[in-house]
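[step 3/7] inverse_fold.run input=structure_tokens len=111
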């Protein structure tokens, strides 16, 4: 679907795709960290371990490797920063929902 660059519809579509991308980045980020902890035999407890710098790097990699619609083109620096700044709190909130409760005994400690 072709959208004239600079049109209000085009800009809104870019914002929408940027926002959807941030959600995907956040979800994959949390999944990756939880998997890494599980591989080490550790539980996902405590506060969110990610940083805004990591969000920026994950966002950059996502837009480099993800198949985006041709009409989207290359994201601007502002779009990358916006996606990273959205992905970070989304990941933190997702982490908080999935994190193990720290007041439960660690199965490793019970051995």
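[step 3/7] decode complete -> sequence:
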């Amino acid at each position: 679907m072709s959208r004239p660059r600079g049109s209000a519809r085009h800009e809104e579509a870019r914002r929408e795709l940027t926002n959807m991308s941030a959600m995907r980045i956040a979800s994959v980020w949390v999944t990756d960290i939880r998997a890494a902890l599980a591989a080490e035999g550790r539980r996902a407890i405590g506060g969110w371990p990610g940083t805004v710098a990591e969000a920026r790097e994950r966002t950059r990699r996502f837009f480099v490797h993800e198949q985006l619609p041709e009409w989207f083109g290359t994201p601007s620096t502002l779009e990358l920063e916006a996606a990273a700044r959205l992905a970070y709190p989304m990941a933190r909130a997702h982490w908080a929902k999935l994190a193990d409760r720290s007041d439960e005994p660690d199965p490793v400690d019970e051995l």
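[step 4/7] annotate
Helices lie at 8-39, 52-65, 77-98.
DSSP finds three helices and no strands in the chain.
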